[in-house]
Amino acid sequence: MPVLPRRPAWSGTPLLAAAAWLTSPLTADDYLGLVDPLLCARHPAGRVVAARPETDDATTLLIKPGRGWAGHKAGQYLAIGVRIDGALHWRTYSLTCPPEPTDGLLSITVHAAAGGRVSPRLAHETPSGTVLRLGPAQGDFSLPDPPPPRILMLTAGSGITPVMGMLRTLAERPPTGPHPDVLLLHSTRTIRECIFRDELQAMHRQLSWFRFVPHHTRPGGAPSRHLTPGHVAGLCPDWREREAWACGPEAMLQAVEAHWAEARVTERLHVERFRMAPFLPHDSDTSGGRVRFLRTGVDADAGTTVPLLEVGEQAGVAMPYGCRRGLCFGCLTPLAHGRVRDLRTGEIHDEPGRLIQTCVSAAAGPLALDI
Amino acid sequence: MRASGAESDLPPHPEWTEALGEELDRLRAEVIATRGEPDARYIRGIITGQRALEIAGRIALAFSLFPPAWVCGTLMLSTAKILENMELGHNILHGQWDWMGDPAIHSTTWEWDFLTPADAWKRTHNHQHHTWTNVVGRDRDLGYAVLRMSPEQPWHPAHLAQPLANALLAPVFEWGIALYDLEPDVVLSGGRSPRHLVDDAARLAAKALRQLAKDYLLFPVLAGPSAVPCLLGNLTANTVRNIWSHTIIMCGHFPGAVQTFTEAQVHEETRGRWYLRQIQGSANIDGGPLFHILTGNLSHQIEHHLFPDLPSNRYAQLAPRVREICQRYGLPYVTGPLLRQYASTWRRILRHALPNR
After folding, report:
1. How far apart (Å, rounded) are the C-alpha atoms in residues B283 and B279?
2. How near does any CA of chain A get to the CA of B157, in Å?
3. Can you tell me the distance from the alpha carbon of B167 to that of B150, in angstroms, rounded to the nearest whole number?
4. Which chain A residues are within 8 Å of B131, Cβ to Cβ?
């Protein structure tokens, strides 16, 4: 569940602000949302107007955002809330549309993860008309305005999605006047798995300032050859002088970061990670895990049966607490990433952003708490 | 079982209470495993119904110079306020619907049409009362720091006035709870800093201003020629809600055979014993489905105290099974029709107004 920005009850148009005095402690939005969820700005929502298959397991959803949508910058992502069995499941996706799309529709591309609970549903079973909840746009992986004169984009797999949002934004700039020179190196396993392939090839043909260099790690079942920093130097000799944006699997990002650091041009590199894995402390010997308290900046070992509340308190973290029995919900703390186990039921929770009861939850592997 | 208000008999066999605890844990796990779309539909339906009822009530009261509109409007607004406080506010603030992952229906974001701010109430109610249910000296809800409800509580001549105090409290219950949540008694005894009291009072004032302005200034003004009947309708609705919630809540822990406990009894209490105390310290009220909804399912007080974070719409299904478990373990399961439970609560208030014999 994303933490929504706290809006004062009197935000919005003057009329709605005045109406808030009549609806207190609710807002006029809470009533408007009963007519149509898209009218509720307090809990932003969007309606799927079309689903377009991109590859066998990737689908682009076109979403009409409601009143609460506050806009985004090219390259940012948002949390999408999908209702499954009565519960909203939140997942983050990169926005692939420009900040002010001409048709007014937001687009995201969902890759159905094998065995996943949420993404296959979104990719394959989301009929037009489905209402999705929208978290605010987030992330600083975005293009500055004006964009730098020379750009290198390094992507792999679904790492193309935030970059696609940037490319479409650049393509909307007026053709006259200076235009940044953009080189995209994009790696996928096979040609078939390359999302946006046709569009990227068309852009490559039509736009003088854009070059698209696809790379396939397993063309026709050949042994794997990943895109390496060596390739980058060969394909883009001036990589050191370019402002670079990279998004893809962790191994690739680590190699890229090391390469840029070696050349002492780290300040030119912008990286986006879908999985927050690198923030997790390394697994310890116990079968519980190490816990990172993100805001406090403390790490601690946690056993499988020790409540995280106690782990935090012993590590000197000012943990919120209450009944210490799982009754009062006074200890709710957001899970940033990782897995926790409910000590009463054995239920596993692993959704980033979920508020967990630390007094009855223990580590089920390494994890990070947003406190 | 001993006479009402007596100390609890502690069962001699810890294994027995732990077995009870395991059975109840299994019931809880069963509900958690089956929570789903029908439950979500239920709470969304109540929210929609409540808001529609409130709008309809407000509109009718805008034309309340016409007496039938006043009656309908007041009735609808009273019902809306009761639903809002009890089936929605109380239960959502308990975290019963947090599993839906919906920021719009969540214990951390919900605010209710009741004077006391949600955060203050979550502290005194969810944490203190539900953890220390009916423990003399720890559960401030045991008489709300004003009434003497158990022979273990020391008697003071002021308690002679408690029947009057309780009768006067009912129509202004939301004020009583708001002041109670400031915990002035705890601040006086040094258990909470005066700084907290000042902060809490400021938050209460800010909220009370909006709540009072809405019901007693803005809607009456908008009603134009119907201003006075509209104001009276709003006052009636708030009062009806206050008397109703006071009645239901007083019947939750005080009728007849409900027991109280000493701190020594809950020392190093296990999960099984905690469950046992919740059963012995709570009382249900019999009634039909509509009655249960209007009490916020607090008519299933026993089930609520065993499983305060399970969705309220499930208590009715759990009740016969909890009752069967109680029968098997020879435990009391205090329940009865509203009138009987209410009369019994009053008898307790009257009895403890006088010193112990």
Report:
1. 8
2. 34
3. 19
4. 322-325, 327-328
Would you state the CATH architecture of domain A19-134? Beta Barrel (2.40)
Q: What share of chain A is helix, strand, coil (3-state, %, to 5)?
A: 25, 30, 45
Could you tell me the two tokens for A29? 């939005």
Distances from the Cα of B234 to the Cαs of A260, B25, B55, B212, B246, in angstroms? 68, 44, 13, 10, 18
Of the options 3.30.428.10, 3.10.20.30, 3.20.20.70, 3.40.50.300, the CATH number for the domain spanning A279-369: 3.10.20.30
pLDDT in tens, A121-177: 999 999 999 999 999 898 889 988 889 999 999 999 999 999 999 999 999 888 777
Indicate yes or no: CB of B127 within 8 angstroms of CB of A355: no
Round to whole Å and give the CA distance between A34 and B48. 7
> Cβ of A91 under 8 Å from any chain B Cβ?
no
Closest Cα in chain B to A35: B48
Phi and psi of A108, rounded to 5°? -135, 155
Interfacial B residues in 107-126 facing A (CB < 8 Å): 107-109, 111-113, 122-123, 126
B99 shares contact with chain A (CB less than 8 Å) = yes
Q: Domain spans of chain A?
A: 19-134, 150-274, 279-369
Q: Using CB atoms within 10 A of its CB, is residue B109 exposed (0-12), middle (13-18) or buried (19+)?
A: middle
Q: Is there a contact between A326 and B51 if contact means CB atoms under 8 Å apart?
A: no
* Residue B78 Rama label (left phi>0; alpha psi -120 to 50; beta): alpha
CATH architecture, domain A150-274: 3-Layer(aba) Sandwich (3.40)
Question: How many Å lie between the alpha carbon of A291 and the closest alpha carbon of chain B?
Answer: 23
Q: What is the pLDDT of residues A174-191, one digit of tens each?
A: 877 788 999 999 999 888
State mean pLDDT over B253-267.
87
Q: Which of A149, A16, A36, A91 is CA-nearest to residue A353?
A: A91
ipTM over 0.85: yes
